[in-house]
Amino acid sequence: MTTVLKRNKWEIWRDVIFALFIREIRTGFNDKLGLGWVIVSPVIFIFVLSFARGRLGGADVHTLPTFTFMAIGILFIQSFLQTMAGSAGAIRKNKALFAFRQVQPISAVFAGALFEVLVKVFVIVGIIIIMYFMGMDLHISNPLLLLACFFLLWIFAVALGLLFGIAELFVKEVGKVRQLFERPMFFISGTFFSLQDIPKEYWHFLDWNPVLHAIELTRFAVRATYGSEGVSLSYLSGIVLVFSFFSLAVYHIAWKQAISR
Amino acid sequence: MIRLENITKYYPSRLGKQYIFKDLSFDIPSGHNIGILGSNGAGKSTLFRLLAGSEYPNKGHIITDLSLSWPVALATGIHPQMTGRENTRFIGKVNGIADIKEYERRVIKFAELGEKFDLPVKSYSSGMRPRLAFACSIGIDFDVYLIDEVTSVGDAKFRRKAKAALLERSEKANVIMVSHEMDEIRQFCDSAIVLHKGELTFYNDLEQGIAQYQAL
To answer: Nearest C-alpha of chain B: how many angstroms from A31?
Structure first.
């Protein structure tokens, strides 16, 4: 006999997220290049861009080696964009699974977001190994701040992804708006240039962007001499808190109708 | 018993709200194998998905203390790139099976996929997928199995087997099924619910229900 366990809500959530996560791993690296490509492609990207940045501005950017500077910028912006797209896409991709009453959209979002973290951890470890063998300085002056920035940015991306994912169930075209808004993020989040490179009177065009705060703060966390003028951890955390609350609230009132269309 | 309380369900469309049910209250009695009869677009599948909790009504509640399966259609929840075994384990985990190994064995025995069980589902023939889907649901002890035209694609042998499996369980479990083939309904069911213009009518005698449905 197969007995069905009596589970409480949390246990159901745990099991479903675990099952979806495994499914994601199983189907996410399905082509021949597999996990290797996930690491190789951003590494090549970082190398090419930091070489270009090095030709432009020399070996250091505000006391931070150019390679580290670019690696942080690109890893963070890619983590943000891919986690957001992955979370939003998880809802669409797993739509057929909502036929199981145990599977709710938010479980799919969490599983998708966890999968993105897993991928990024592989990329980060890969880059650290490369930096080690190239004899680069791996010293981090404030590791806690670095971790805080990474996870705040991750939560921010998941919150936005959840919001977009739910909206896309109602109006499919929202996905196109999301892609439109993703494109400039690469250029306005301080990936290539530090906020310090930009004249102060223009800062107000850029400093509303929490992703910029996360990236600049991470560079400051790696090398304290880089400075943290113009960015603040409390602004970043405040924005993340507000968006998480808002998107969970929207999810709570809308998810049942969203999957019933 | 499954109690529908003041169910209102519509789908938005360009022509406004398309109502499937308006303020519907109904009790589906337990202890019957019920065939749901209704013309195309009457809302059979919608009713099914509401019962299973795959969708939610716009207003009202569905109350039951029975455990219902998911709507077992041709390939619900089956990922074509995963193997039969992986899909089985996924469904087992989601449904909270205590002993997944044992569940796997049951599915293997019932689906008769042989070594294809360890190959991706996309390599299966069109008859094999529903067999896997059906085996996954019959492998779990539900009170009510919701079956949406799955058995109609199988061959005679598979149908006999499905029938035997459901009969074996019939003291404790029942089926509610949707099909357009009256032969199939006659094979599995003993009573009927006719769905017409958003109203449900229960017929204790299947033949009476079929006669009523064909007169519509």
So the answer is: 11
